[in-house]
What does this fold into?
Amino acid sequence: MANLPFRHKWVVRLSLLIPWALPLAFAGLIFAWFFHSEYGVVNDVLRRLGMAPVIWFNSPAWAFTAICLTIVWKTSSFMALIILAGLQTIPRSLYEAADVDGAGRLRQFVEITLPLLKPAIVVALIFRTITSLQTFDIPYTMTGGGPGTSTTTLAMYIHQNTVSFLDLGYGSALAVVMFVISMCVTVVYLRMIRAKG
It folds into this structure.
């Protein structure tokens, strides 16, 4: 919708920017309130629909689900902006030529849009994978790693060891491991795009 040629597309683009512009910790606090078991918005909606409310942060599975939904909402807008930038680099003349040749919308998407969007998709995947490996703010503000340690991420574990336990050597080693994993993932993505290109 943000790429379609209509007058009020700026509203769609603005709605894409709002989640991305919110600080991560603030988004985590907002959604912690949304998923609160007693006065949260999500449980209120469930009650109005005649369903039983869920105690989100007492179960590892439900806590993980709430965190995933929050992260998807927060980060999808940035991914959409990257894809939008990729869409805007595709010349309209290609679609016009495909229309003349009788290609339908689905074939245009498969033959034109997807191949030319491949670099933007890979960039989005690299950003999203690296930030998912380094996720800290949202799980920390929503659950603090709980219940127990079921939603503790690698970045939270590094923070716990370096700041809370003052085990700087172990924390530094874990940070190096996280960096190496991020680099390996990036190299894999780049090799995939070169192999297909």
